[in-house]
Every structure is written in structure tokens, then in C-alpha cells.
Design goal:
Helices cover 27% and strands 24% of the residues. It is of the alpha+beta class. It has 2 domains: 21-69, Signal recognition particle alu RNA binding heterodimer, srp9/1; 82-181, Signal recognition particle alu RNA binding heterodimer, srp9/1. It starts with 21 loop residues before the first strand and ends in a 9-residue tail after the last helix.
Length: 188
């Protein structure tokens, strides 16, 4: 490439365009591969017994696992990643996933409407928390206005909910707008 055809460097700081994938070192290799395949409805792109790549979209792999049976368990009190989160397109998609996972014996350990998101947290076989969530605001402008309103500052964690009640309310025809409100626990 000649100097005449080389693009000029961008003057601003450049950020990544996306988070590509997560890689887990695990001694529970088969259980982890099965769990993430089930939870994310992912397909195996590559597996050789030592390394497995999974994807659920057009990325070549989103989650990978390295089989290291000699590893010790992580100390839950040690510094490290608290959780990883995956966003669904809509509340119906999240609730359908909740019901599918429940039928497979995979139950959330914590359900909370954070305000910006409605979230269901699960634990993988190694104990890592995995958040399945939806965005509660249709636009970033509405989300930013909500943050500026002081609502988040008043309760930065959110309001817990019962996933089974939320799913039943959805099936009973309660509006999505109502279901996304913090503190909804029963049809009113």
C-alpha cells in the first residue's frame, strides 16, 4: 500500500466495535459446555475435548471453554468477574427462555428489575453468575432521561420479582409496558 492510498489515522480515541467472546477455563468442561449450549440455545462450532467454541448468532464463537481438570475452584470471596450478561430482544423472548430453561431444570437464582433492565440471574456449573436481561427503555434518550430523573439514584439495585408471577401475568395479557415497571408483582 503506498502512502498515497493509506488512510489517515483517526484523530479520536478508537473504541472496539463489539465484545466478541468469553473464554472460560474449567474443570467442569462437559457440564459447562452443556449448560451454556442449553441456556444460550447455542451451537457448537468446534470441539476437540480440550477446547469448545459455541455461538448463538453470526459471530464465529461467543463463548469458549478450555478443559483443565486440574484447576482448583475459585474462591468466591476473591476479586474477579461478578457476572456476564446476555441481552434478549424483548420481554416475551426473555420469558420464553425462562420457561424453556425451567423445563430443563435450570432456575434463576435472582430476578430483579434494575430499572434499565429486567434481569434473571443464573449460576453456571462453575458458579459464575449469568444474567439474562432485556432493556426496559425503547431508546437511549428515554433511558438517559430516566437516569437524570433521580429514580436510579433512589434505588440503584432495583426491585426483585418472581419470574413465575411475571410469566403468568404475561400469559394473562398484562401489557408489556406494565410488566416492565419496577415493583410489578401481581396483575392490578
Amino acid at each position: 500500500m503506498s502512502a498515497a492510498t493509506r488512510p489517515e489515522p483517526h484523530p479520536a480515541v478508537i473504541a472496539p466495535v463489539k465484545l466478541a467472546h468469553l473464554v472460560f477455563r474449567t474443570r467442569r468442561y462437559e457440564a459447562m459446555v452443556q449448560w451454556y449450549s442449553t441456556v444460550l440455545n447455542a451451537t457448537t462450532v468446534y470441539s476437540d475435548g480440550m477446547l469448545t467454541f459455541l455461538t448463538y448468532d453470526d459471530e464465529h464463537h461467543r463463548v469458549a471453554f478450555v478443559n483443565l481438570p486440574e484447576l482448583a475452584d475459585l474462591d468466591p470471596a476473591a476479586a474477579g468477574v461478578d457476572h456476564v450478561a446476555f441481552t434478549y430482544a424483548s420481554l416475551p423472548d426473555l420469558l420464553q427462555t425462562y420457561e424453556r430453561l425451567r423445563s430443563e431444570g435450570i432456575e434463576p437464582v435472582w430476578c430483579i428489575n434494575h430499572g434499565p433492565t429486567t434481569s434473571m440471574y443464573y449460576r453456571d456449573p462453575d458458579g459464575t453468575r449469568v444474567e439474562l436481561q432485556i432493556d426496559n427503555f425503547p431508546t437511549s434518550a428515554e433511558l438517559h432521561a430516566w437516569f437524570q430523573s433521580g429514580e436510579f439514584a433512589r434505588n440503584p439495585v432495583g426491585v426483585e420479582f418472581d419470574a413465575e408471577i411475571l410469566a403468568q401475568m404475561f400469559h394473562d395479557g398484562v401489557s408489556l409496558e406494565k410488566l416492565l415497571q419496577q415493583g410489578v408483582t401481581e396483575a392490578q
